[in-house]
Amino acid sequence: MARKKLTRSPNSTILIVTSNQSSALYFSQMRKDCRYSNLNVEWCDKYKDLVDFINQAARLRSHGNYTVVWALFDFDDMHATADEVKAVLSFAEQRKVNLAWNNPSQSLWYLLHFQTPIGVVSESRVIDDALANNFVPHYKTGAEYLLTDGLSFHLSLFPNKSKAANNASSYNAMAEKATGLAATNLILLFNDITRVCGPADVTHNQRQLGLKKN
User: Could you tell me the residue range of the domain that residue 102 belongs to?
Assistant: First the structure.
């Protein structure tokens, strides 16, 4: 009898600790949409700085006995520079915390589902305006949108996930020349989610996504 192929790491769990409520809501939507039962999301609403944020993520990993933890933050939230982020990478590794980030904000990741900015953008407002005016009617930064008009936001972006990855690669090449650091490394986080949780199961949402069964 042929062995059944494993689709996810057995008995593994992954925790995402976010620096803002909006990111927590987005990944909670993903957890529901993709049926990732072993993915957990926590919003860390109080932290002194990036080091404190990493330490809190490490404590949550230990208390919850999670296999993997990712600390996800926006540069805007941390008031961080690329040099400051690079300076804590080894510390995060020592604390067994994977770092994921968006520079300047999570809105960049959303925009990459539609286009690659023609230049490096440092102001979140520019990205928010591009989303609201060209791609996502009624879009607003922060948690309010994801709690109202954006209740199915992750699901609406899901078909463009591969496009977002390609756009991120192109945009990161520009950002690394300008700042010495990728503007977003969410692809690493998503790859780890797939490794731990297995492929996304969105069959129960086929009508909303407009997908057809093979």
Answer: 14-199
